[in-house]
Amino acid sequence: MNDRVYFPKWYLRGIRENPRTSGPLVKKFVNLDVRMYIRFLNWVPAALKMPEQELIQHAGLDSAVYIRIYLLGLKIFVPIALLAFGVLLPINYTGGNFHIMSLSMKDLTYGEIDKFSISNVPPASKRLVAHIIMAYAFTFWTCYILYKEYKIVTDMRLHFLASQSRRPDQFTVLVRNVPSDPDESLSEHVEHFFRVNHPGQYLTHKVVYNANKLAKLVDQKKNLHNRLIYYTNKYERKPSKRPTTKTGFWGLWGKKIDAIDYYTKEIEKLNKEEDAERERVIADPEAVVPAAFVSFRSRWGAAVCAQTQQTRNPTQWLTDWAPEPRDVYWNNLAIPFVSLNVRKLVMTAALFGLIFCFMIPIAIVQTLANIESIEKVLPFLRPLIDRGSTKSLIQGYIPGIVLKIFLLFLPMILMEMSKIEGHVAVSDLEAKSAAKYHLFLLVNVFLGSIVTGTALQQLKEFLNKSPSEIPKTVGVSVPMKATFFITYIMVDGWAGVAAEILRVVPLILYHLKNIFLVKTEKDRDEAMDPGSLQWPITEPRLQLYFLLGLVYSTVTPILLPFIIIFFAFAYLIFRHQIINVYNQKYESAASFWPDVNRRILIGLMISQLALLGLLSTKKAANSTPVLIVLPILTFWFHKVCKNRFESAFRMFPLQDAMIKDTLERATEPQLDLKAYLKDAYTHPVFKGGQVELMEIDDEDDIENHLVATTRSRKGSQAGTTEGSPEDRTGIYAV
Amino acid sequence: MNDRVYFPKWYLRGIRENPRTSGPLVKKFVNLDVRMYIRFLNWVPAALKMPEQELIQHAGLDSAVYIRIYLLGLKIFVPIALLAFGVLLPINYTGGNFHIMSLSMKDLTYGEIDKFSISNVPPASKRLVAHIIMAYAFTFWTCYILYKEYKIVTDMRLHFLASQSRRPDQFTVLVRNVPSDPDESLSEHVEHFFRVNHPGQYLTHKVVYNANKLAKLVDQKKNLHNRLIYYTNKYERKPSKRPTTKTGFWGLWGKKIDAIDYYTKEIEKLNKEEDAERERVIADPEAVVPAAFVSFRSRWGAAVCAQTQQTRNPTQWLTDWAPEPRDVYWNNLAIPFVSLNVRKLVMTAALFGLIFCFMIPIAIVQTLANIESIEKVLPFLRPLIDRGSTKSLIQGYIPGIVLKIFLLFLPMILMEMSKIEGHVAVSDLEAKSAAKYHLFLLVNVFLGSIVTGTALQQLKEFLNKSPSEIPKTVGVSVPMKATFFITYIMVDGWAGVAAEILRVVPLILYHLKNIFLVKTEKDRDEAMDPGSLQWPITEPRLQLYFLLGLVYSTVTPILLPFIIIFFAFAYLIFRHQIINVYNQKYESAASFWPDVNRRILIGLMISQLALLGLLSTKKAANSTPVLIVLPILTFWFHKVCKNRFESAFRMFPLQDAMIKDTLERATEPQLDLKAYLKDAYTHPVFKGGQVELMEIDDEDDIENHLVATTRSRKGSQAGTTEGSPEDRTGIYAV
What we know:
Two copies of one chain form a homodimer. By secondary structure, chain A is mainly alpha-helical. Among the domains of chain A are: about 160 residues, RRM (RNA recognition motif) domain (Alpha-Beta Plaits); about 70 residues. Chain A is built from 34 helices and seven strands. In chain A, the strands form two sheets. A five-stranded mixed beta sheet of chain A has the order 6-1-5-2-7. Chain A has a two-stranded antiparallel sheet with strand order 3-4. In chain A, helix 5 crosses helix 27. The C terminus of chain A is likely disordered. At the A-B interface, helix 11, helix 14, helix 15, helix 29 and helix 30 of A face helix 12, helix 15, helix 16, helix 30 and helix 31 of B.
């Protein structure tokens, strides 16, 4: 029964059959077979068995590299933990600071954990040299592992790209900000420009249309069509009774009418509207957006065009690699260059405001959502609320719930902010919102836990302190918060991973949807869809564990085993999840790795500065010049990594393009590339109307295969273009 | 007589004849003709008369744009001064703070200037709103002018590049870090790589040789040859007596011998050595450096290669535009990629040390160079020193002189540091040392004057202060230092410009050289050479005046007229100098403008932060959020400028390349580009030995026209390759 929740990927691939169980009702919901629970742990060896090469083929490179982050955590922290336990724990334990202190001030109580931490080493002790040496050792080890991992991931990416079969985005470049020309249409202008400036390489292009309204109509029709199928199925099963519906909202009220007739008529009406709108978009020169997908005869030609500047004015004819067709975020294609600068400025200010003032709106909501106002709005709840116990419960929980709700919506808010910034690929959008989320967690969770008070208060405090005071403030609090973070790792980390394998939320949602929403087989498929890994949320959270591990490695090494258990457990579980559950929407070939590497290095630098601050309060003032070298070296290491590897994640080298081109020319000399690229970059809403478009193409000979953009902010529309385009052609063909 | 010092450019161009004056000896050194001194000012209208287009043709775009910086200063500060005098001066003057203060503390004396400054406005006065509004007005005006100027310079540059005639660097790309191949020679490897990956575009290439020793030999021979000519001339004038020389150092001691015979023999000996070395370099595969100049059939092909990544490994086959042949810094071509990263790190640390600890070595030298140690080293000076007056004079002046000498050598030290960083073009080297010098002046002259004490003490103080304290410390001191900076502008700025037009130092040097060193006509030409504008030194100094003007525009506007006079005066004089004196070594087509723009914006931001600090001490605390917006907006404006214009200074757009290629193909269809490029990128030391090289070329058919690099740190060798290559061919042909 729940198989579809735990192994949806296999259903999506059509490998598992729909189980047609029809046992007693109880069995349907509660699994009474005890063996099942034992078998439940079978996935552990299964998840580990699949070799990496097969994993890449099965789940894509993005997922395969994503779980390597957990492995990376193990690689970094297991040797660090061994070293720290061997060297630092005995040194700390025999430090005897608390013995001295407990004699002087009896009231301070220290936990057993603190005996193993640096706090137990008395100030100005010679023992602190060990901590400095260990800081160096841990830094070099972390950098060494990061460098090796970066190299491995780069090789994996390059190998993946090289062995990839032909894809439209290998030949295509996205051109933005095409200047208008008084004598030519946009399409002609694009063609002439590239014919002249990339002679022999230009093949074809597609103009982008603003199909905002059209996309809405198509969405509506899809919905109606789904209902039609539902009622047709119902009628087929019970031919004795024509199904009926009501004309009002969601079929809940209004006049009762024959459902099949009604929806057939409605669809026909929409069909006509859609045709009219489609013709308008094609005919109206105003509907053309100054952007185009330009395709070249070879990968070499596309690589050249993507990497070079076209004209004197760098704000016009901006060329960059076209995102994978599934990855295009159509809504942002029309944003002009000037507006991009302003948008970025505004969003940076907004992010700053969000991070440092995020408690303010929550506090407002919390005061508004108090008992009195609830009673006012929903007076029928009054008798319930007025009972004493309920009242205190609500008053106690509402602030926490409001905060949780806000945190739940935070990734979505950050995603919307990234959308406003104007990135044109979904993968870009996710990378940018991940960066924002990382910053938020760093300030509000890490710093916020260490230095109590809201982020705004912290900022005020920090601005009024000297720069050398900041590491001190953080450093001093670090050892005191070890117990808190151990709890955090267990509650958020371990329990979060356990919830992930049990898929509690999706399980509930799936069953809710099944009961209330699912009407046709297609609906069920959609309800079952597990979505993608959501790495823009999980990856920044994960970085917090790297940060904690690095910060506490020298201070309270006893925390490290908890981190290691988290990484090991999470590695296992996510390996299982990417094999059996998640279904990636697009493939970016691990293009997020530079971000991962950078963020771990940020964590490393924070850990070094915190240690610096801590030791300077330990009256080991001479340690400052020795320790200040570490963050500088780390920053330099970041630069080295960037120079050495990052271009492999941003550019496509000409040599590789040439090799692939030559190979293809030798093996498939008859390949009709133009036909292959014909519909690759067509907006999903135009995929159904190909017949009409073909005719227009034949007429004017310029290949303006219609590509459209919607200006709506709905997002989900482009974001959820899952499945191959062929899937949906069938729907529209009706 | 001094004509050669004041108008050397015309001599270098061969327009002015050598004056053969032979009047009385006194007249030779002291000009007795009073009219000359009146005529002396004639250059002012003459300097202004030349239209800009002609100026560009005469002096190059670099120089023409350089003097626009002074004009930019006028454009920014004249309206700011008018506005400040109209609005701020009356407000400050009637502020009456000093009236109040002088009642309370009689001992404080304020100058008349302070009455016009913001210090005269009492704390928490409403009048301060005017200063805030003015800060906004000045910021917007400065940004507006900067944007307009950036646009003009960009257009000038693009127009200049477009109208430029054919140049070898338009077709050539510098490839560095060519990986070694076991099966092929480096030259073959380069050729095969580019034939495969840039098919149809690759034309030819030149391997770079390490010709360190050879360059030294050529230098020696040049020196001997010069002496030979000197003695031959001497003999021709007085055929009765064969000139003699001595074999020892500089012909000062040793055996007396016949000079012409001796030098002829020596030159022959060197010729043989040189030939042997040349053959060794050509034959020895070890002498080949993993770099090459690759030329393409078209500008389009070169533009594509320069802007794209060639292989997976971004540390190999690094391509970039080849510098102009005169601009190549041969010594750095062989530095491997890994070493570049380390070098940059070390040099950044060294620069930091230099800036913040520059007083330390000077103090050491100052203590070493005291009277006692001078007496020890040079005991014969004792009687002179021991006289009381001399002693105190020396003791008073030595520290100042040591500091002056250090400051004189500073640009050279910074240039050496840039050379170690590994840039391959002289223009790059100059840009980088200018950036270092700017930072040095900012910290040690501006901040150092405002906050007294050495930079290291300042740094310590700043690190112990909170970030919000730093603008306060600076801001409070700013109005107090107005008088000091007015003096500075007059002493350093005005007097410096006056010294520039009088060319005091070059005048003395020229006459000294003429008496002691000049032996032949060629020597005299070299002594006369005025060198280039040295903008890596003058431009950062100039930026100081922008900074002062912007900082004081809201605080003490009375300083602005001094700045304006400086800019106007300097504009006039430098316009004259670039027309009549300086002779640019290379043409970078104003590629330094992004740096100029950035540095002015840095100055603007410093001025905003200083005002912010100042007002926060004036108890106008509410002003902080209003004023903190300004530096953020300025930074954003910098980003906008960068996005909008900078690529025009870094890249060559494909469209422009294509236009020039097409035009050339139409006008000169028979052009033999290969022949044109044959010797363009040949190391100067190989230019003389072309005959031998030609033969080798014919033999192996691969176009390895020899190009060499010297590993010596002499620098001057590549830096002073002035004049066209043909000039020197004649010398070696003897």
